[in-house]
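INFO batch 0412 | record 1 of 1 | parsing
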Amino acid sequence: MKVAVLASGTGTNLQALLDQVHRREGIEIVAVASDKPEAQALERAAAAGVPTAVFERAAFAGDRLARDRAMADWLRERGTQLVVMAGYMQIVSEEFLDRFPDAVINLHPSLLPAFPGADAIGQAIAYGVKVFGVTVHFADAGVDSGPVIMQRSIELPDARELDDVRPQLNSIEYQILPEVVRLFARGAVRISPTHPRRVLVGPSAVLPES
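INFO prediction complete | emitting C-alpha cells
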C-alpha cells in the first residue's frame, strides 16, 4: 500500500509511521505534503528519502479548491492509495476527498465526537474531563466529523495543564496511527454497507475473495 502523509508541524506522528511501517508489511510512504514550508515534517520526510511538496494556500491566491486539486494531482502521480492527515491543520475539500474515496484518514487528540476542531486538549481540560483520548477517523467535509475507525483512552483525573496531557496522548498516537495504517494495508478497514457511521475493523472487515 502506498501512503501519503499531510502534516503542518513537527511531524512526530509522521516519524512514528516512518519508524514503524515504512517499507514494512507491504507499506511504503511515497509522499509528504504540507501547507507550511517551514514544517519540520518535511525535513523528516527528506531525511527518509520520501518526496515532499508544499501547497501553501497563498500560492493559489487563497483558492482552497485550486490548492487541493494540485495537491491531489501530486499525490495521485505518486500512486497514493491512502492519505493520512497527521497534524495537518487544514480542512480538505470534498473534491479532494472524492479523489481518494474512503481513503483519507485523520488523527485527532480527543475522543470524538467530543471536542472537535482546534485546541482539543485545551477544550477537554477546560471542560474538566477525567478521561482523555485519541481518535483516528475517516475525513469528511466537516470538522473532525467523519466515521470513527479506532479510539484509545487514558484516565488523567488530575490533569490541569496541557503538559499533563499532551505527552500521554502522544504515546497513544504513536501506537494507534501505525496500527490503523497496517489494518488498511491488510484490507481490514471498511465502512459498513448498512450503516455509514459504523466502521468495520479487523477480520470482519476483510471482504471474501471472489
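INFO post-check: The chain has a mean pLDDT of 95.
INFO record closed
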